[in-house]
Design goal:
The chain is 41% helix and 20% strand. The protein is of the alpha/beta class. The protein folds into two domains: 247 residues, Aminopeptidase, CATH 3.40.630; 203 residues, Alpha-Beta Plaits (2-Layer Sandwich). It has a six-stranded mixed β-sheet, with helices on both faces. The protein has a five-stranded mixed β-sheet with strand order 12-13-9-15-14. A three-stranded antiparallel β-sheet has the order 4-20-19, with helices on both faces.
Length: 553
C-alpha cells in the first residue's frame, strides 16, 4: 500500500508537470522567459535556497536578443563529487494541433477533446486507459523537469549526504541549443566557485520502450552535422544552353549520391546511425527569366556515432569531385549528340572539375581582394543578422549568401562546388569514449539495469546513443583535432552568429547519461507521457543512480 507521504509526493510531481505544461514556451521565442521565471521562483520557495541565496540563479544567455536565461540551483552535500541534472524548458510550437491548439497546454481539456478526433488505434487505447498525460511538451521534456525538481527538493532536505546535486534548465534546445552552449561557461564558473568535481550529467529526455516492453536509457548522444553544398554554374540563355553550365544538374546529382547513402552511417555495436537526408535545395534565381540559374545550393543532415567533421568533409569532397566528372561526361555526351544532329564537328565543352572547401575560397578572397572583401563580407553578415532576427531568412540558408559573396572576390569564375558546414553542430558523445572515469560511472550501465530491477521492478536496456539529438553533446569533446579546425574554418557564420565554446567543453569533459520517462509521439499532436513513470518509476530510478554514483568508492 502506498504511504500517504508517497501519494503526496506523486501528486506534487504531477501538479508540477501540469503547471509547467500550462506555460507556453515555444522554442526561439520570448515565451521561454515565462517558464524560466516559474522555475526560478520554484527553486526560491525551497527552504534550502532561502538559506543559501548564492546557490541558485538565472544566468543570461550570451548575445541573445530574446534575453533568455539558464536557471540553475546547487544543493551542497559533503565532498566534491557532483551530479548534474540537465533539462530543457523550451518546446516546439503547437500548430500541428490545428483546431485543438487552444487545448494543447491543458491536459485535462485536451484529453476530452481528443475523444472527438479520429486517432490511430494505439493512441486511442492510451487515451481510454487514462494512464497517459497528453499535452504539448508533456513528454519533451517538461516531465523530465518535474522529475528533476522533485529530486532537487528531496536532496535539499537531506543532511550531509555524499556529494552535490546541480540542477540546470536551458533554453533553445529545440532550435540551436544556445542555452546549453552558453551553459558551458556557467558550469565552469560554478565548478570553480564551489570547488566541485563533475562526476556525471543526467539528462531526462523521454524514451520509447523496446518491442519487449523494456525501458531504455542512453550512455551517450548522437552527433549531427549539416554540410552545405553550393554550386556556381555559368549563366546562359536557354537557347544557347551549351554555352552555360546549369548548377541544378550538378547539385541534384550530388544530392542523389548523398541522400540515404548508408556509407555515411556509423556502426557501434548493434547501433547504426540513420543515413543522411537533404533538408534544403534551391536555385539562386531571384525572379523568372529565360536563362538557367547562375547558382544553386542546399544542405543536408548527417548523424554521427564515430565520424568527425574531418572525415565527413573528405568523404563529401570525394563524392563531389567524382560527381562533377560524371556530370561533365554526361554534358559532353549530350553535346556530341547535339552536334551530330546539326552535322557539325564534335568538340568538348570547356568545363573542368572544380571542388573547394569554404576555407579555401575564403582564404583566396582575402589573398586576392584583402580589406575590400572583408568589408563587404562583414556588411553582408550585418544585414543577414537583421534578416534572421526578422525571420526573413533562416540561419542555414544564410550560408548561401555568404558563400556567394565570397566567390565574388576571387579571380576564378568557372563553375565550382563549394563545401561548407552550417549551424547547428552537435558532436557525438558516449561514455565509451572516455579514457578516465569515476569508478562508479565506469560501471553505470550495469548499475542502472540493476537499480531498475531492484527499485522499480522493471527491465531496462542500455543504448550507447540517444538518437533524438540532445544537449548532452556539449558536455564533452573527443577527437577535438578532427573537429575544431574543420568546423571553425568551414562554417561561414562562425563567430558571427554562431559559436561553440569548444575549449571550455574540452576542459569540462563530463560523462553523460539519459534517464527519462516513457513517452510517445514527440512533436506530434498526440504527444504523451506515461503517468506512472513521471510520478514514481523514473524519480526512483534516477534517485537510485544518484546515490550509487555519489557513494564512497
Amino acid at each position: 500500500m502506498i504511504s500517504a507521504l508517497m501519494e503526496d509526493s506523486e501528486k506534487k510531481i504531477k501538479d508540477t508537470l501540469e503547471e509547467l505544461v500550462s506555460i507556453q514556451s515555444d522554442t526561439g521565442t520570448s515565451l521561454e522567459k515565462d517558464v524560466e521565471k516559474y522555475l526560478y521562483d520554484w527553486l526560491q520557495k525551497l527552504d534550502y535556497f532561502k538559506s543559501n541565496t548564492n546557490n541558485s540563479g538565472s544566468y543570461p544567455l550570451k548575445n541573445d536578443s530574446l534575453e533568455r536565461a539558464v536557471v540553475w540551483g546547487l544543493v551542497k552535500g559533503v565532498g566534491r563529487k557532483t551530479v548534474i541534472l540537465l533539462n530543457h524548458h523550451d518546446v516546439v510550437d503547437a500548430y500541428d494541433y490545428q483546431t485543438l491548439k487552444t487545448y494543447a497546454y491543458q491536459p485535462a481539456l485536451l484529453r476530452e477533446m481528443l475523444k472527438n478526433v479520429e486517432l490511430a488505434k494505439d493512441v486511442e487505447e492510451d487515451l481510454i486507459s487514462g494512464e497517459w498525460i497528453f499535452a504539448r511538451g508533456a513528454a519533451d521534456m517538461k516531465a523530465g523537469i518535474a522529475i528533476q525538481l522533485s529530486i532537487i527538493e528531496e536532496f535539499s532536505k537531506k543532511q550531509n549526504f555524499n556529494g552535490n546535486i546541480l540542477f540546470i534548465s536551458v533554453a533553445d534546445e529545440e532550435s540551436l541549443s544556445l542555452g546549453m552552449r552558453s551553459s558551458a561557461e556557467l558550469l565552469k564558473k560554478i565548478k570553480n566557485k564551489f570547488d566541485l568535481e563533475y562526476t556525471i550529467l543526467i539528462d531526462s529526455e523521454p524514451h520509447q520502450k523496446t518491442e519487449n516492453n523494456e525501458g531504455v536509457f542512453y550512455t551517450g548522444s548522437v552527433g549531427k552535422l549539416m554540410p552545405v553544398v553550393y554550386v556556381r554554374g555559368k549563366k546562359t540563355h536557354i537557347g544557347d544552353i551549351f554555352q552555360g553550365f546549369n548548377p541544378l544538374l550538378l547539385l541534384s546529382q550530388i544530392a542523389s549520391e548523398t541522400e540515404l547513402n548508408s556509407d555515411f552511417s556509423d556502426v557501434v555495436e548493434n547501433e547504426v546511425s540513420p543515413p543522411p537526408s537533404w533538408n534544403y535545395f534551391r536555385d539562386g534565381k531571384k525572379c523568372y527569366d529565360a536563362s538557367i540559374p547562375d547558382s544553386a545550393g542546399g544542405y543536408f543532415s548527417v548523424l554521427t556515432l564515430k565520424r568527425t567533421p574531418k572525415v565527413i568533409l573528405e568523404q563529401l569532397l570525394e563524392i563531389s569531385k567524382q560527381t562533377f566528372e560524371n556530370v561533365i561526361c554526361k554534358m559532353n555526351k549530350s553535346y556530341s549528340n547535339y552536334l551530330n544532329k546539326k552535322n557539325e564537328n564534335e568538340h568538348k565543352l570547356p568545363w573542368k572539375t572544380n571542388v573547394k572547401t569554404f576555407s579555401q575560397i575564403y582564404n583566396d578572397a582575402i589573398e586576392q581582394s584583402g580589406e575590400k572583401f572583408l568589408l563587404d563580407y562583414n556588411l553582408t553578415i550585418d544585414k543577414l543578422k537583421v534578416d534572421i532576427k526578422n525571420n526573413i531568412i533562416g540561419m542555414p540558408e544564410s550560408n548561401m549568401a555568404l558563400i556567394g559573396k565570397t566567390l565574388e572576390y576571387i579571380t576564378d569564375k568557372t563553375p565550382m562546388v563549394v563545401i561548407a558546414f552550417s549551424p547547428p553542430y552537435y558532436p557525438h558523445i558516449s561514455i565509451n569514449d572516455f579514457k578516465e572515469l569515476d569508478n562508479n560511472v565506469s560501471d553505470i550501465g550495469n548499475a542502472v539495469v540493476r537499480i531498475a530491477r531492484e527499485v522499480c521492478y522493471e527491465t531496462y536496456s542500455k543504448r550507447n546513443y540517444f538518437m533524438g539529438i540532445s544537449d548532452m553533446s556539449y558536455s564533452a569533446l573527443n577527437e577535438s583535432e578532427n573537429v575544431i579546425p574543420h568546423i571553425e574554418f568551414n562554417m561561414p557564420l562562425w563567430n558571427n552568429m554562431y559559436d561553440i565554446p569548444f575549449e571550455t567543453i574540452k576542459q569540462l569533459n563530463i560523462p553523460s547519461i539519459n534517464i527519462g520517462p516513457y513517452g510517445k509521439d514527440l512533436h506530434k499532436f498526440t504527444e504523451r507521457v506515461f503517468t506512472l513513470d513521471v510520478i514514481r518509476q523514473t524519480p526512483r530510478l534516477i534517485n537510485g543512480v544518484i546515490e550509487y554514483v555519489l557513494k564512497n568508492n
